[in-house]
Amino acid sequence: MSRLLLIATALLFLGVFLLLPLLAVFVQALANGFGAYYVAVSEPMAWAAVKLTLLVAAIAVPLNLVFGVAAAWAIGKFEFRGKSALITLIDLPFAVSPVIAGMIFILIFGAHGWFGGFLRAEHVRVVFAVPGIVLATVFVTFPFIARELIPLMQAQGNADEEIARSLGATGWQCFWRVTLPNIRWGLLYGVLLCNARSMGEFGAVSVVSGHVRGLTNTMPLHVEILYNEYNYTAAFAVASLLALLALLTLAGKNVLEWRQPELRPAARRPRDGTRREPA
Amino acid sequence: MASNATAIKERTPRRVLPGFGLTLGYTMVYLSLLVLIPLSAVFVRSFGSGWGHFWEVVTAPRVLASLRLSFGASLTAALINVGFGLIVAWVLVRYTFPLKRLVDAIIDLPFALPTAVAGIALTALYAPNGWLGARLAPLGLKVAFTPAGIVVALIFVGLPFVVRTLQPVLDDLDQEVEQAAATLGASGRQVFARVILPALWPALLTGFALAFARAVGEYGSVIFIAGNMPMKSEIAPLLIVTKLEQYDYAGATAIAVVMLVLSFGVMLGINALQNWTATRHGER
Questions:
Q1: Which of A8, A29, A98, A216 is the most exposed, having the fewest neighbouring CB atoms within 10 Å of its CB?
Q2: Is B118–A88 a contact, with Cβ atoms under 8 angstroms apart?
Q3: How far is CA A118 from the centre of its chain?
Q4: How many CB atoms sit inside 10 A of residue B183's CB?
């Protein structure tokens, strides 16, 4: 009896708080029929937003990927002083409000910022332009790949690489032929989560973007503009593309967790937020 | 920190693998350029106009109201998430039911769904003419464009933190201990209060802190549903944006410093709590 009651409570709660909002996005997007939906997602400004979102993710994700691999190699394969402090610092962006993440780049590169005068003299725009959007996105997605790879590499140890070395492999051969195949699912997992956040980031990007339609408008910002213009169908149509991306991300995440069960949060630690670290 | 001490002890000079200097160097440079130096700008700029000005900004009535709202709503949402998150995690770990895998997968939706999308979807649901808003209105309940709407949005963003923190701990619980307690005559309630809850409370506290920390800084999902009335439904991150738009950098950074100090405090608290439980666990 209490079992049924608990299951019903859990499902009702999840239904109201998670499923209904998701459903609402698609229902609202199609409220005026498929024709209106198609018009909304195919108009030039929407396309410009899609392209900018893809561009930003295409820069931010590889940057954080290289960083994540480097950090995981140093932390996972070697012992050194201050390691746990370094891990905490890598997680730092998760503790920073997205709005503050955007603001710091205005403080540095904005008109009244540290480099504002220099940038104006050189006619380079960072803030209220694409470089600022990329910087803010890199900041908020900074820990995603590193935090997947660090525990994975720590758990795998150095034995495979040491054998490869003793058989005469160079450091790079060791990395490409031994380490990379070992961490490939974890790497993909991190890239997936990093990509979802890059494409969906709103607060940080909103602060540095300047909201110039067709130029500095990412998809989430385009959703906001349409919504604030009371163009609800169009806003939800673009939002539905982002919701589809979220569903694909969840699906991909589950496939990877099935491939490598250690990636599953139930086997490890919370997916986001602060690391639970074995002391 | 305890783990530092062990790191020193275990440090061995012999390194078979190459690339330590390169990767650590790259990590430090990238971390400094993109995170540490930019973040320090907040502190430098906020104290650039002196302590007096900082204090004046932070204690202004509108700023205090927004901080009170942000922290209050985050606290409420995190507490609700701890309660329902425990039920959800319990049901997912202990029981089997149809479509359980799908239900488990959807827990992560708030991590994957862009916050702006969540924001407009929740607003559409809870607006006076929305699916839920229209049903709540006759009961005299107004959610959208009130602080209650902020709490709803923060429940959405915080839920997975609680569930995902509790699941592995619940999974590890030894059910034989519960059965032993039951055979010794403990009621279901006693087993829960005396056996299960003591083992869960560090995870509950961690989940609570993670959900709370995320909620305090949340912006995208809140601003659509909040109504954003100064002194009533204006959250602190929104006030930062407003001040930035007015080029009031000293004001914006002062609020940011208060929020950052609190977030970092929560983060260090979680780390300490986890180190403490890990050591205690290890000693047993």
A1: A8
A2: no
A3: 31
A4: 8
pLDDT at A279 over 70: no
Side-chain half-sphere of B73: how many Cα atoms within 13 Å?
A: 31
Number of domains in chain B: 1
Closest-CA distance, B125 to chain A, in angstroms, reads: 7
Residues in chain A closer than 8 A to B5 (CB atoms): none
**Residue B118: CATH number of its domain:** 1.10.3720.10
**What's the rounded Cα separation, in Å, for the pair A218 and A202?**
9
CA dist B278 and B269 (Å) reads 14
Structure tokens at B179: 């059965």
Please report, in angstroms and rounded to a whole number, the separation of the first and last CA atoms in chain A.
41
Among A107, A140, A248, which would you mutate to test the B interface (most chain B Cβ atoms within 10 Å of its Cβ)?
A107
Query: For A34-267, CATH number?
Result: 1.10.3720.10
Neighbours of B186 (CB within 10 A): 16
Chain A nearest-CA residue for B98: A7
Residue B16 in any domain: the answer is no
With CB atoms and an 8 Å threshold, state whether B114 touches A24: no
Give pLDDT tens digits for B228-249.
889 989 999 999 999 998 988 8
Q: Are B277 and B265 in contact (CB under 8 A)?
A: no
Q: State if pTM tops 0.95.
A: no
